[in-house]
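Problem 3 from the worked examples.
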Amino acid sequence: MKVTILGCGTSSGVPRIGNDWGACDPTEPRNARRRVSILVNTASTTILVDTSPDLRAQLLDARVGQIDAVIWTHDHADHVHGLDDLRQLFHNAGAPIAGYARPATIAVLRGRFAYVFEGADGYPATATLAELPDAIRIGDIDVRVVDQPHGSITSAGLRFEAEGKTAAYATDFHAMTDAMRTLYSGLGLWVVDALRRRPHPTHPHLGEVLGWAAELAPKRTLLTHMDNSMDYKSLLAELPAGVQPAYDNQAILL
């Protein structure tokens, strides 16, 4: 099983519009961050998590033209507004792309992107949308799901298992629940939101994430959803063994 980091930046990306790199060194390529998304794949199955506004460029860089399914973690713009780029995946596959989300996210996506799921003006639907249950098998990948508190809504935390390997994706949450602790125990890889060093009301900050990583003890932890205060080499110098900042186009073979 392989996990590919399509993007590891926050909603504004790095740099922010205006060429604002913040504390990030602009000469370090790994500081250039698109909006968050990952691919999880085996030899026979490819799952996309979220459709960021940078999706076209992300899939071109990853050399991916076909997927088996997309899972949306929640309805915020930086996670869904590249949804129109599923149209080319639809053309490549010759069939609508299978999409999954929790019920509250489905309601928003259907209202915002009805033409994608229902078709319009003679154009066919390019994706389907089904409820994401607590456990589902997509191809040869088993997916387990937990609801994570994220401000006034919840996001879907995801655990993937295939070929005896385990990885989990925990982005856009602000507290660690017991159900999350259970899902994120015994992992080979944990990709987790670490927005910045200072506290934030709807995202975890670095200190919290390091505490959870020590508690849950995954074999490897990668930080994602980072803003422009999180310089790649500065983080490398301060993080404990087994914890690293992610970077765009990073591929992790488990």
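Problem 4, a separate protein:
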Amino acid sequence: MQNVIFPNRILPYFLVAPQIVLTLIFFFWPASQALYQSMMREDPFGLQSGFVGLANFTAILSDETYLSSLKTTVIFSIATAFLAMAVALLLATAADLVVRGKGFYRTMLIIPYAVAPALAGMLWLFMFNPAMGTLAYLLRRNGVPWDPLLNGDQAMVLVVIAAAWKQISYNFLFFVAGLQAIPKSLLEAAAIDGARGSRRFWTIVFPLLAPTTFFLLVVNTVYAFFDTFGIIHAVTGGGPAKATETLVYKVYNDGFVNLDLGSSAAQSVVLMVIVIALTAFQFRFVERRVHYA
């Protein structure tokens, strides 16, 4: 490995300075403010506040609605990450086999990632709206009593599909890159030895995609916890009866709707700790099963 030699000692610090400044402004400063507000009790207008210590944390951890939102978040995150990664891997494998028009297919599959979360949510809401949705009409015509506005399980299925569809394109990009990095000679040798397509995939392709899969597992977990707010807000608004109210949506609901600023700040701190702990767990234990070539 060749070491990079800079012309002077100050240049490296200038190169990393923009990223450090952005991190301080958009991560550490908001995080410190949330931690400070989580130990305060403020009136809805922010005119008066008082120090309450860990009272806000004690209140939310003993609140049944918060624990229900935690359970909803776990189910939603697992389902979204699994569906988004599974479909993306399937599409990447299929696109890798295309001989003509490969670039066109890949470009078309990447387009959904450019759609804003709120627009993606509205798209799926219109398609599955029980009053005027085309797909909702087909479901009802085939005997499925589809109504996500009243049925919590159906609402959860709808937001999972919408959130996963938004993330499939991102996963697709990395899986395609991972497939291109696999030496074709390995697959040709396995084919000569008589290994069929499914066996070649599970014994050669999938293990070599382990680094990519692990990276996407971390990214999709963070995405499901944080970046799906716009989709949930547009599709269900956390309903019906809080069936799709995840932790990040409850932070918004309690802070900006109910104006319980201290509780909302405490929830954001707990959410941040959960995501950091989950990511650390993945790097500590899951990465052990990843083999880098």
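Solution to problem 4. The beta strands are 40-42, 49-51. Residues 80 and 161 are 7 Å apart (CA to CA).
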